[in-house]
Design brief:
4 strands; Rossmann fold; four-stranded parallel sheet; alpha/beta; 13% strand; 172 residues; single chain
Length: 172
């Protein structure tokens, strides 16, 4: 097994392949101005060295993180874990990751979670809560799903899908 002490970077792939960092990046992103032979050489080296693109660097360049914050009261109840399961499926289908926050059923903690997610690490927020927080000016869209006492899983699933789709529209 290979030594995993250092992570393979574009700079390291450039050194190994003999091509510039710019050429390596273009080859890995299938740009048309790079020859098929050069792309193959670079991609083979990347595959051999288990190269994985840095999602944070890609996010900075594209100004998109492909991540959504999900704030739920707590993860250890059937209803909330079921919601989390379904939101994760939707996120995965749409090429997103989720970042989980637990509010522990505290409105002040919900605000703190929203504030913490406002640092550019996510593209939007889905908040599952009993009470709607006061929405302030945030850098990202927030979708709110209100929890009611007699809410069925089917209702919550409908809200889950609708909220996720609305969030995606607001991100675009």
């Amino acid at each position: 097994m290979k030594n995993l002490e250092s992570i393979m970077t574009l700079k390291e792939l450039s050194r190994l392949s003999g091509f510039s960092v710019s050429t390596v990046s273009k080859a890995l992103n299938n740009k048309l101005d790079i020859s098929i032979n050069t792309k193959k050489i670079i991609k083979d080296i990347a595959l051999e060295h288990n190269y994985i693109p840095n999602t944070f660097a890609v996010g900075l360049r594209k100004k998109r993180t492909q991540a959504v914050a999900v704030i739920i009261p707590q993860a250890n109840t059937n209803l909330y874990s079921w919601f989390l399961f379904n939101i994760e499926k939707l996120a995965n289908i749409n090429g997103y990751r989720i970042v989980l926050f637990q509010s522990l059923e505290s409105p002040s903690r919900e605000k703190e979670c929203i504030k913490n997610s406002n640092d550019g690490s996510v593209d939007g927020v889905i908040l599952l809560s009993k009470t709607k927080p006061q929405m302030q000016d945030y850098n990202h869209p927030i979708e709110f799903i209100q929890i009611t006492e007699n809410q069925s899983q089917e209702q919550l699933e409908k809200y889950c899908v609708n909220s996720f789709n609305a969030l995606l529209k607001n991100i675009a």
